[in-house]
Specification:
The chain has 239 residues and is α+β, with helices and mostly antiparallel strands. The protein is built from 9 helices and 4 strands, in the order ββααββααααααα. The chain folds into 2 domains: 171 residues, no CATH class; 67 residues, no CATH class. α2 crosses α3, α2 crosses α6 and α8 runs antiparallel to α9.
Length: 239
């Protein structure tokens, strides 16, 4: 267990957080040579920093609105910010939004850094290439910028963009207890509707992740979240 304080907010990092980061970063690839291990380490650092920014988005806005110091925990499934006090619906709405917005703001900072480092056009091309990776054509300036990168820079930019852009957007899907589901819960009085929507969207995303993109982890995650929403529906009955 790793514990510390940042901006007077207590943070606890559980061992499972590092293990999950290791596995998602390629720990099951089979070949763990020096280059692969360096890539995994870089990924774990990016995930740690990015999730900390996300959770402190929640935590700092929570403290601003309530005057109470929250706490943060990083665990196997990501991060949690505990308000340590009761939040009104309005407070919950803004506190929940703050996490994904912090991640997207960090993405904008990364994008701006690319444009400063490689020039506006090529830098924007580098960002676009990493937002939508794959075999697609790029202009000469972007191609020159991409080929000039060393392996570490290439991995760093890709990981920062992938985590802070895509994870922030996915987290806004209306699947409880993701941020999108909690935002919906803060404006929808019917728990039944919150969990019904979470179950349906969770199933759809799980199927798309598996069939369209062959993303086993994402499919398992959203399948599990859909099941959680189904269980919550059973617990509350028809309310």
């Amino acid at each position: 267990m790793f514990e510390f304080k940042l901006f007077n907010i207590p943070v606890r990092v559980e061992p499972w957080f590092w293990l999950t980061g290791f596995l998602l970063g390629g720990g099951l690839s089979g070949t763990l040579n020096r280059e692969v291990m360096m890539g995994i380490l870089l990924w774990m650092i990016v995930v740690f920093v990015s999730i900390m920014i996300h959770e402190f988005g929640h935590a700092l806005v929570c403290r601003k609105l309530t005057g109470v110091n929250p706490s943060v925990k990083l665990w196997a499934m990501g991060g949690l910010a505990y308000p340590n006090t009761h939040l009104t619906r309005k407070q919950s709405f803004w506190v929940t939004w703050a996490g994904p917005l912090a991640g997207l703001a960090f993405f904008v900072v990364v994008a701006a850094g690319c444009m400063i480092a490689y020039g506006f056009g090529p830098g924007l091309g580098v960002v676009s290439y990493n937002v939508y990776p794959g075999d697609h054509s790029v202009d000469s300036g972007t191609y020159e910028a991409l080929t000039s990168m060393n392996r570490v820079t290439e991995q760093l930019i890709h990981s920062l963009i992938f985590v802070n852009f895509w994870w922030s957007l996915v987290n806004l899907l209306p699947v409880y207890p993701l941020d999108g589901g909690q935002i919906y819960a803060s404006i929808e009085s019917s728990q039944k509707k919150v969990f019904q929507l979470g179950m349906i969207v969770g199933i759809i995303v799980a199927v798309i992740a598996l069939v369209q993109f062959n993303r086993m982890f994402a499919a398992a995650l959203f399948g599990y979240l859909a099941f959680q929403n189904y269980q919550r529906l059973q617990q509350i009955g028809g309310r």
